[in-house]
Amino acid sequence: MPLKSSGPGRQSGSKIDREGISRVVAEARKAQAEREKTYREQSLKIHPWICARCGREFTNKNLHLLTVHHKDHDHDNNPPDGSNWENLCIYCHENEHRRYLDYIEGGGAQAGKEQKESLTHNPFADLKGLLKPK
To answer: What distance in Å separates the CA atoms of residue 123 and residue 126, rounded to the nearest whole number?
Structure first.
């Protein structure tokens, strides 16, 4: 009884399907090239594998936990120099988006940007007259 195919490189029996292997390798290379075109792959090539907020370092083993954040929150703004990206761990990335949503929901208010009321009383209005010699 002949052996069943055990993968893309095998046909029945022990013969190797070289065309199948070449096709699989070509598809894998094409998929890798497509991934490298994405802004995440570009950012991982440009920027260090360190969270820009908390400083956590990443390796190939945990790189899936490192995300790319768009600084201006516009996911269509992807300059090839990476100037709109920063690598953030998933925790800092979530925090950044929560802070941005809080800002938007609060009507854009920021601490320290309160409107100053105009003064109605000037305690030094007549100071010059008081200092004149008599």
So the answer is: 8
Tokens of 103: 């800002």
Q: How many CB atoms lie within 10 A of CB 91?
A: 14
pTM exceeds 0.85, yes or no: no
Residue written as tokens 């938007």? 104
Residues 94-134: tens digit of each pLDDT: 999 999 988 888 887 666 555 556 657 777 778 777 787 76
Task: List Cα–Cα distances, 69 to 39, 72, 76, 103, 104, in angstroms.
Answer: 10, 9, 12, 17, 17
Identify whether the C-beta of residue 66 lies closer than 8 Å to the C-beta of residue 51. yes
- Our CA dihedral for 42, 48, 51, 56, rounded to 10 degrees, sits at 140
Rounded-to-integer distance, Cα 67 and Cα 89, Å: 6
